[in-house]
Structure formats: C-alpha cells, structure tokens
Amino acid sequence: MNLKNVQAIARKEYYHLIRDFRSLYLAFFIPLLLILLFGYALSLDVDDIRTVVVDHDQTPESRDFIRQLDASVYFLVIGYLTDTTALEHTIEQNRAILGIVIPPGWSANLKADRKSPLQVIIDGSDPNFAGSTRAFISAYISQTNQKALLQFLNRQGLQNIKTPVEGRIRVWFNEDLESRNFIVPGIIALIIMIVGALLTSLVIAREYENGTMETIRSLPVQATEFLLGKAVPYFLIALVDVLVAILMGQVLFGVVMKSSFWLMIAASCVYLGVALCVGLLISALTKSQLVANQMAILVTYLPSLLLSNFVFPKENMPAVLKMITYLIPATYYIDILNGLYLRNLSLTYLWPGFLVLLLMFFLLSLLNVVILKKEGL
Amino acid sequence: MSWLRIRELVRKEFIQLFRDKKNRPLLVIAPLVQLIVFGYVVTTDVRDIRVGLIDQSRTPESRRLIQAIDANHTFRITHYLNSPAELDRLLLERRIDLGVIIPPDISSKIHKRETAEIQILADGSMSNMASIRISYTMVLLEQFNAELLRELYRKRIDYGEIDGRIRTWYNPNLDSQYFYVPGIVAFLVMLLSLLFTSMAIVREKESGTMEQLMVTPLRPSELILGKTIPFIIISQAQMVLVIVFAILWFKIPMVGNAFLLLAATFIFLISTLGIGLFISTVSKTQQQAMMTNFFFILPFFMLSGFVFPIANMPTVVQWLTYLNPLQYFLVIVRGIFLKGTGLGVLWPQLLGLAILGLLVFPAAVNRFRTRVD
Questions:
Q1: Which of A98, A217, B119, B311 is deepest in the core (most CB within 10 A)?
Q2: Share of chain B above pLDDT 70, in %
Q3: Which fold has domain B49-153?
C-alpha cells in the first residue's frame, strides 16, 4: 500500500466535499439539529399527564384526593368538569389523557368502611403513553389505599400499626430518570450512521454513474488505497461530529460521561470504521446513487434506530427480529455507550462489544477489498 | 402545454425507474420491510420485568414475598443470588432490570409489628420504562402489605378501599401496532415521495441529461408535470400496497373511507412533492439532495407526534409543528384507519395540508422554472 496514493484519493474526495459546500454544512448541521431536538423538545418521560376531573362527591376527602394527585409530578389537573359527557368530550378531543370521575357518596362509602368505586378513563390511542399513565394511576390508588388501611386498623383500637414491609427503592445509572441521559448517547450512534454510512453509500456509486470509475481503474491505485482514500474525509467529519455531540450533550444538557473519554473515542472510531465499510460496500454493490441511498436507509439508518435496543427494548421483539439485533453494529456500540455514559464501566466489562465491532470491521473491509478487486481495481 | 410531451416524459421516467433491476424490488420491498420492522419494534411496553433476588432471611415470610413476586405475571425472577456483589454485576451487565434484597430481619420485624425494609435496586438507564417498573413494584408491595395486615390483625378487614375501575379507551389492550402501523404508512409515503422526486431530478442534472431535456421543446411546466406525475402514481400505489399489507398482516381494521384516505394522500403529496422539487432546485449532486432531504425528514418525523406526543413539547416547538405536513397527515391517517372519522372532523387537518401544499408547491415550481430558464 502506498500512502501517497491514499492521500491523492482522499484529496480528490475532499475536493468533492469542499466544492459541495452544502453537503459538508449539512453533515455538521444535522447532528446539531438532532441533539437540540432531543435535548430540548423531545422526551420519552411521561410527566404532567393532563387530567380532567368530575367530582360529584364534593367533599373535603374527594378534594384532598385530587389535590394530592395534582401535587404529584406525574399528573397535572387541567380542569374540573360538571358531568361525564363533558369529560368524555375532552378526552375525545385529545385535550386530556386521563379522566377521573368521583361518584356521589364516594367518601361516605369510604368512611363507612365500604369499597368505593372510582371511575378512571385513559385515552389508549398512544399505547406507550397510556401504559405509563395506567401504571402511575394504579400506583397512586394503591398508595392511598394502603394509607386508608392503616388508618382503619389504627381506628379499630390497634395502636400505632406500621406497614409490614416497605420498599427502599434506589435508582441506579440514571438517578434522575431523565430520558435524555440515554437518548443523547444513542443519538451519537445515529449521527455516525448518517455521516459514515449514508453519505459514503453514494461515493463509489457516483464514480460508476459519472463514468469516472473507468479512469480510476486505469490508475495505479490498489483497492485498499482507493477505499482508504474514500473513507478518510468522512471519518474525520464524523469524528468532529462525535466530539461536538459529546460537548453539546455535556454543556447544554448536562449529560455527562461517567467513564473514560478515550474509551469512548476508541469505541466511536471502531464503530465509525464499520459504518464506513457498510456505506462503501453498498456503494460498490449497487453502482447507482438512487438505489444506494434507498439501500443505505434500509440497512443502516433504520436498523440503527429500531433494532439496536436504543429506545425500543429487544425483549419486546419477536424472536426473529431479536436475532437480527445481534447482527446490527449499532446494538454493540449503543451498549458500549450505555456502559460508558451511565454505568461507569471499564474495558473489563466492555471488551466483548469491542471485539464484535472489530471483527465486523475486519470482515467488512475484507469483503470490500474482494469486491473492488473483482471490479478490476 | 402538450399532453403528448408530458406523457412521453412520464413514460421515460417509468422506463428509467424500472430498467434498473435493483430498483424494481426496492420499490416494493423497501416499504414492506420498513412496515414490518416498525410494526413489531416500536413499543416501550413493560411486559416482563427481570428480577434478581437475594433472600437473606429464608423464612416463611420471605418465601411469601418471593411467591407474591413470582405470581405476578409482569415480574419474572431470573436469578436467585447470594451476595450483593453478584446483584451489582448483573445490573451492570443489563441482565436484570430490578434487584430485590430481602433483609435477614424481615420475619422478626413483621412479628414485632415493625416495618421491615426491602432494598430494591432499579436500573434507571431507560428512564421511561424504569418509572413504569418502579410503579408496578410499588403496587406489588402494597398488595403484599394489605395481605399481611389482614392476616396479622384480623381474618377479614373491610376498610374503605378505593376500587379504581380503570378503563382504557380506543385501544383497550394497549396494542402498539394499532397506533404505529397507520403512522408508518404516513411516514413511508413522505419518505419515498421526497427522496424519489428530488433525487430523480438531480440525477438528470448530475449526469448532464438535464441540458438535453432543456433543448427539447419541453416547456418548464411540462417538465415539472412529467417529473412529478410518476411519483404521484408510485406513491399512491405504494400507499395502497402498504395499506393492504397493514390490513392483511397486522390485522389492523380499516374502519374509515378508503377513498377519503387516497384523496388526503393526494393533498399530502402536493406538499411533499413541492418540497422534493424545492430540494432539487437547491442541490447540484445527489449526495447534496440526500442530505437536504434528511434535513427535512428528521424534524418532520420527530415533530409529527409519531413517537413523541406533541403535547409534551415546549410551546414554541408545538407552534412549529403546524408547519409540518406529516403532523396533519398523521392525524388524518390514524383517524380514518382507527376511528373511522370523516370529513366532518378531519377538515381542519385537510385544510392545513391544502394550505401548506398551495404555499409550497407553487413556490417550488417558480424556483424550478427560473432555474430551468
């Protein structure tokens, strides 16, 4: 391999990029946009669930029940209505997710030590949101019940009764339970795929489409030199993107890496290598930019978003898709990032992920070289 | 304007699209693969909580608690452990979601009528799911408490218990496919129409055949129509394909009017094709066009209410969503698909789409025309 040749190809690709000012500009701007969107606007955490209440009971007890519900971080009472039809209307029109109807005589029943029904209506159209709502309202009701039970027992003359067991819940790794703490690292994986694989998937196809592949074949350039030269500019762009993403995550959103920064850079480089290989492979195989682009979205971008255990847990997937997640490089990279960002893990825990990514990298680059050699390079 | 010339251009476009053997399967397979993967994957439902458990007490009381956890169908005890260090390790390796440590004094504390503390370690890394797991754990413990109290103090206790009768509307089983599959249909139509229009036009520029088209007697308006009609046809065909597949494969009932849906798709396509045209006027290479597409597609996707509820966004961002054609189309598709809503309810969305289309498309055509001239 001749470094001079690599340099020449890299310079050519670099000129392509520089001349194409907007591609370059977007390669930096899209990552910024993603991080900003996820940091500021998008959250998977369910809080302030919009709640409407119909209180037919109108007693201090019922008002207290609602006041405490409102005080919890999960619920936000946005309105008190007079009848159930109005409540149903509000939910139908999507203005509230949760409706609570307290029937007349509700607290009288409670005071008389009878079971007292409470109507709870959840808008289930967004199942993820509704699932959280259901869990939170169930927990709230059972908490209130436990207090009532203790009061009841104490009223029966059994003095000073305590709950038999109490859960001391401690949350690890993401102590504040903020979704951005795991989304920002995942976004880094997505950015690397967009810049590393989507952009490069057009690079060799373009040569074929414009007929310049013939020229390159006639040059004294080897397949490895050609590939390396094509990859280097994108490698550098993506690396800058990663650094910017780390910095923005930390400065703007307080998403701080708990483990080693250099380990993160090492993992990013390996994963970036894999992404570049996939992009170039698609490019060399399809030879058409339009097809390459479609293929790249299909085999790189979407799997990295959906099948990588990023937001959607693989435990919920059907067996076939679950198996596919093990073939997706992003699965390993996101796992490593999760370890570095949240769990403060070192290489002793993370080496299997590194190993798989390295293996993928070698196999894919070998495949790339073989295919280009076949094409006469 | 000559229909003959437009027809020939449309024909050329189709020949070019289908001549490439690799393109043919992509037009059909790509949307279907995306539909299937999205349909199965996009859920953050908590169905299975993996628990690692340390029983330091080994008494009837601790065994009862273990039974209570085991009997709950959401919890599954995967590991019985002896030391907290093992538990930490499993949590670090993401092999369990919850660690439960039952203290040695649970039995004595319960019998002395004091409170025994159960230590619970929750993996918070996926915060949305962790909050749900914690809520479920609290409910479980409170049920266990109620049971113990009943036994400790009386055989039957009838206290004033709130009986929460929770009903979930529209989607009682919280089946995520009902919600997401129609959404994917909308997203795919946008993705394909944007990408194909812009890249197909830029391809002509890049390979220099645009010059040739311009020396033909084709007028700019004919060129635009000839370039967009194929993609309207293809997008509508893909829409039908995807809908049929959604109904047959995912068994999503199509409650509403199919013609209304196709009409809405057409209005939606006007704005996406307008954006596609616009992208083609500002891009010189296909690489540029693709990046610019992503610049539109990503915010459209994120700010559409597809995965992230719009109500959760900051107010300023909520205003921005009014500029997003996918936001309107998503409401329409979900409404027609799941609730069978008609024009009476959906007209604001259709109007919004139409206004966006009428703003974007002529502007893009104008820009395209000046570029061609």
A1: A98
A2: 98
A3: abc type-2 transporter like fold (3.40.1710)
